[in-house]
Design brief:
Layout: H1 3-21, H2 25-32, E1 35-39, E2 48-49, E3 55-56, H3 58-71, E4 77-81, H4 87-92, E5 98-99, H5 107-112, E6 115-117, E7 122-124, E8 126-131, E9 146-150, H6 155-165, E10 171-175, H7 178-186, E11 192-196, H8 197-206, E12 213-215, E13 223-225, E14 228-230, H9 234-253, H10 260-266, H11 270-276, H12 282-286, H13 292-300, H14 303-315
Parallel strand pairs: 1-4, 1-5, 9-10, 9-11
Antiparallel strand pairs: 2-3, 6-14, 7-13, 8-11, 8-12
Helix pairs in contact: 3-9, 3-13, 9-13
C-alpha cells in the first residue's frame, strides 16, 4: 500500500472518529429541542422557582448557558427538580441530560457511580446553623446535639468525621429532602442544621426572623460544587465543561451581557476574538456554532454577573474563594484556544 492510500485511509478514519465524537447526547438534545437539566427541589440563590414558577439561581443559569450554547436559546430548558438521592441516578440513567444542583465532586461519585463531573462552579464547605439564643458559639460545643441533615449527600459522613475528630456525640436526624430537614430544624425538632454554608445562608435568609439563627464559624469540609453528565460521552462532557470555563473567561476578559456584541465586533484582543467567535473555530472543536459563547453571555452574562445577581444581591454572599484567581480567589478557567 502506497503513502497516498495510507494517508487517505487515515484521513477517513479521523473524519469518522470526529463524526462519532459529535454524536450522542449533544445530538439528542438538539433533536429534542430542549435541555433536560436536573436542579434542586428549591435552594435560594442556586436553583429555586420564584413566585411565577420561573427557576432562578446560579445553577439554573448554568443550565440556561448550556442551552444557549447548544441550542441558541437560553429558554429551551426543562428544569427537573431532583431530591438528593435522585440526582446521580437521574443522570446516569438518562432521565436528564445533565445536573446542575449543588452537588459535591467526590472521588466515589466521579469514578464509580456512572457520572462525570465537569468544572467547579462554586467552592463551598459544610457548616452548622443554630438558634441564636442557644448560646452556642462554636460547632465544637454541639456535643449531644441533634442535627438535621439530608440523606444521599456527603453531609452525614462529614459530620461523623468531625464528631469523631473532636470527641463529640452528634445525633443525626436524617430526611429525604432538604426542605424537610430545614422545616424540621425550624420547628425545633433539631438543635442544629448542617449542610453547605452557602445553603445555610440561603435558608437563613428565608426565615421570618433571620437574626434568630446563627451560622457557626467552623467549615468542616471541602465541597466543590459542579455540574455533571453521564459517564462515557466525552463530547457532551466537553460541552458542559467549556461552557462554564467560557463564562469564567468572559469575566476575566471583561466581556459582559451588555458589551458582548460590541466586543465580538470590534475587540482587538485575540483572547476575546477566540472566545466570541470573531476568529478561530472554538465552537467547531465542540460541535457547536462559533457564536456558542456569545449566545450564552448575551443570554445570562458572565460568571461574575451570574454570581452577583443570584448570590451577592439576594443572599449577601461575597465572592471569597470564588473570586477570580487574579482577584485573590481560586476561580481559574482553562485557556480557550
Amino acid at each position: 500500500m502506497g503513502n497516498k492510500e495510507t494517508l487517505a485511509i487515515l484521513a477517513t478514519a479521523v473524519a469518522t472518529m470526529a463524526a462519532s465524537a459529535h454524536a450522542g447526547k449533544l445530538e439528542d438534545v438538539r433533536a429534542a429541542g430542549e435541555l433536560a437539566c436536573g436542579v434542586s427541589e428549591g435552594v435560594p440563590g442556586f436553583s429555586n422557582p420564584n413566585s411565577e414558577g420561573v427557576w432562578t439561581g446560579l445553577d439554573a443559569d448554568i443550565c440556561r448557558a448550556v442551552a444557549a450554547a447548544t441550542l441558541g436559546d437560553a429558554n429551551a430548558v426543562r428544569f427537573v427538580p431532583l431530591a438528593s438521592k435522585q440526582k446521580v441516578l437521574a443522570v446516569s440513567s438518562g432521565q436528564v441530560d445533565m445536573t446542575s444542583r449543588t452537588t459535591t465532586w467526590t472521588m466515589k461519585r466521579d469514578s464509580a457511580e456512572g457520572v462525570d463531573f465537569t468544572s467547579v462552579v462554586y467552592y463551598d464547605g459544610q457548616g452548622f446553623m443554630v438558634r441564636a439564643d442557644a448560646g452556642v458559639t462554636s460547632a465544637k460545643e454541639l456535643d449531644a446535639a441533634t442535627v438535621c441533615l439530608t440523606t444521599g449527600t456527603t453531609t452525614e459522613l462529614n459530620m461523623a468525621d468531625f464528631a469523631r475528630a473532636n470527641g463529640l456525640t452528634l445525633e443525626p436526624e436524617v430526611f429525604e429532602g432538604k426542605r424537610e430537614a430545614v422545616e424540621a430544624y425550624a420547628s425545633g425538632r433539631c438543635d442544629a442544621l448542617t449542610t453547605d454554608a452557602s445553603q445555610l445562608a440561603a435558608f437563613r435568609a428565608g426565615f421570618a426572623n433571620p437574626s434568630d439563627h446563627k451560622i457557626l464559624p467552623e467549615i468542616i469540609s471541602k465541597e466543590p460544587l459542579a455540574p455533571f453528565v453521564a459517564h462515557g460521552d466525552n463530547q457532551w462532557k466537553d460541552v458542559v465543561t467549556w461552557v462554564v470555563y467560557g463564562l469564567i473567561t468572559a469575566e476575566e476578559l471583561g466581556v459582559t451581557q451588555a458589551n458582548v456584541a460590541d466586543m465580538a465586533a470590534s475587540s482587538a484582543n485575540p483572547d476575546v476574538q477566540r472566545l466570541l467567535g470573531a476568529s478561530g473555530d472554538t465552537g467547531g472543536l465542540l460541535g457547536l456554532s462559533n457564536t456558542w459563547m456569545s449566545d450564552a453571555i448575551s443570554a445570562i452574562g458572565n460568571y461574575g454577573e451570574i454570581y452577583e445577581r443570584n448570590l451577592t444581591a439576594t443572599l449577601g454572599l461575597e465572592r471569597g474563594v470564588n473570586a477570580l484567581w487574579s482577584d485573590g480567589g481560586i476561580l481559574y478557567a482553562m485557556p480557550v484556544r
